[in-house]
Amino acid sequence: MGRVELLAPAGNFHALKGAIKAGADAVYLGGELYGARAYADNFTQDEICAGIHLAHVFGRKVYLTVNTLVKERELDELYRFLLPFYEEGLDGVIIQDLGVLRYLRVHFPGLALHASTQMTLTGSLGTSFVKKEGISRIVPARELSLEEMKKIKSETGVEIEAFIHGAMCYCYSGQCLLSSILGGRSGNRGRCAQPCRLPYETETGKQCYPLSMRDMCTIDLLPAMIEAGIDSFKIEGRMKKPAYAAGVTAIYRKYIDLYYQDKEHYHVLKEDRDFLNALYIRSQIGDGYLKRYNGKEMITLHSPSYSETDASLLTDIEKTYIDGELCREAAAKVYLTPEKEACLSLQAGEICVTCRGDIVQKALKQPLTREKIEEQMKKSGNSLIKITDVDVVTSDPVFLPVRSLNELRRMTIAALEREMICRNGLGYPDRKAAAPEKNGGKQSAGKQNRKQKVLHALVRTTKQLEAACEENLSRIYLDYTLLLQEGIQKLNAYKADSKENERSFFLVTPYIVREKDKKYLERMEEALQTGLFEGILIRNLESYQFFYYKNPSCKMVLDANLYIWNRETLKFWDGRAAEFYLPLECNMHEWKELLSASPKREIQASAVVYGRIPMMISANCIRKTMEGCSHTPGIIMLKDRYEKQFPVYTDCLCCYNVLYNSVPLSLHKVSFEETFPAENLRLDFTTEGKQETLQIIRYYRDISNRYREPFYKEYTTGHYKRGVE
Fold first, then answer.
1. Which residues are CB-neighbours of 50 under 8 A, at least 6 positions away?
2. I need a labelling partner for 135 at 20 to 30 A (CA). Which of 187, 301, 381, 635 fits?
3. Where are the alpha helices (DSSP H) in 298-401?
């Protein structure tokens, strides 16, 4: 096992230089497009290329974040955006979108592909799936324990990159729509407004900050993490100042090195712990989920704000790591012999390069002095090489134009930098990009046969199931928890009562599947074998991989949280799933752009037209935080500062919370229009009782023939009209 990589954030070029000075083995940064930190300074194209070159000269790596969901209209720009970085030697990209994964694998072969934590990978099943698609490293969900990450590593062999320090999200990354739905600023697009850091009132009547996680600090757990086989330690903080990135990197560098020098006596000094606590840390810190599943002690209940950072401390860090030059020293030897080419050798450690220049002339009037030659050689400008010692070898008075000396110096410095990069193993001479087709790979449109709209329902309770069956809906999705309730015993009767077996039942996977939760997938597979169910609604990559191997003939439908935003993602899933649900963050025009870009697809588009949108899926539990764990599933309410009530479902089987919107999504005005881009229309039921479920189903049935206003007064059309930036 090699040494662990220390991976630092770089929000701008100063942060990159500071992180490298402080000892980072690699940095991750974002460009002006496709990055999940839209409000960071971010890098221009020239800065990224310069940053890659700088890092490689010092033997460090650069990873680029391309970790947003990409809209159809943005896809064609991706090649032009990445090409200069690929040619400069970019070491890897961090991605969320499976369409981007497919695109990069085709057009940038040889580029390392890392799965972002936004991909919500929680186990070896999902990891194996993306590994086969070209992923070499994953950043697993931050909610995983050290043992879970260790198991993924041992079973898949994929590199593991784990967060070790910085801010924590309350929601599983990639599964949060809270900022998006409430304010139009999507975390999936790098624009999260952090409404989780605002106060809420719980059922205890107290206003506090139940969704605000403590910051992470794992300096004491480094030995356990190294011994678990983690490959890369990642520091969070691209939105923070360069001094933060450099200061935190320096401390973790110190203790990683101490572990390898003398792991038996690993000990963190109080002054170093205090140093970390003084750098942009919220009022309380913890070690994240590495040693626990959830708990009140992980939440900043009383204040989510950052503690004040000592200005003198920041100044000291800036002087040490940010200010001044960042260069490698070299010694020069200049050979100037009349009638021969000028020759310059540069020696940096064990590396030596030699270049030849213009013909040296015998001086007739004004010979070059040794002082002048030395002066010109030491003028390295903005180069990463600083020539500290110059030895001039000449016998006769010689002359060479100053411009010739300068050109020889520049040429030799460039050769030395190239050799350093090659010696560091960071040159990629054989990589060739494959330009996309002129039409971007879009399919020509064929004639689309419009079918009649069909109503489906997704139910979570036995009463909702009874209502859906009484209304004889053609397809009913049953939440996996119903397998443990009495209602599942009625399915045979419901199946027998359906007219000519027109009704079909589908099971719905949990939102999150951890190692401990595979038993529920096994139970679902047993239920499939009974013949009662036609297929599965898939909500995560773990479940997809499980059923792909266990029951490949089973009809699989992808829920909206698997995010199909562009034609490449559609192509990725085409042939792997029968249907997919249109993404909740795209507007109607983006839905139509997506579908028109792949008219020859086999996978069918469906849409959720009614139901409370799941806005957060969290490992932490609000009930446990406020009252203590009751091990009883159900709904609790969370009230915001505008008096809006948000239902939170506590799933006590797979142990997670689902925070729903305060009002249901309702697309009743457009669902049955001929131009609506989906034929299967799903009604999602969460908090509704049997009578309300019946009313809603009947209302949608009625308006398929003749429109009327709904009986419910409060609702949202979500992003159907507005979309996200």
1. 13
2. 187
3. 311-317, 370-377
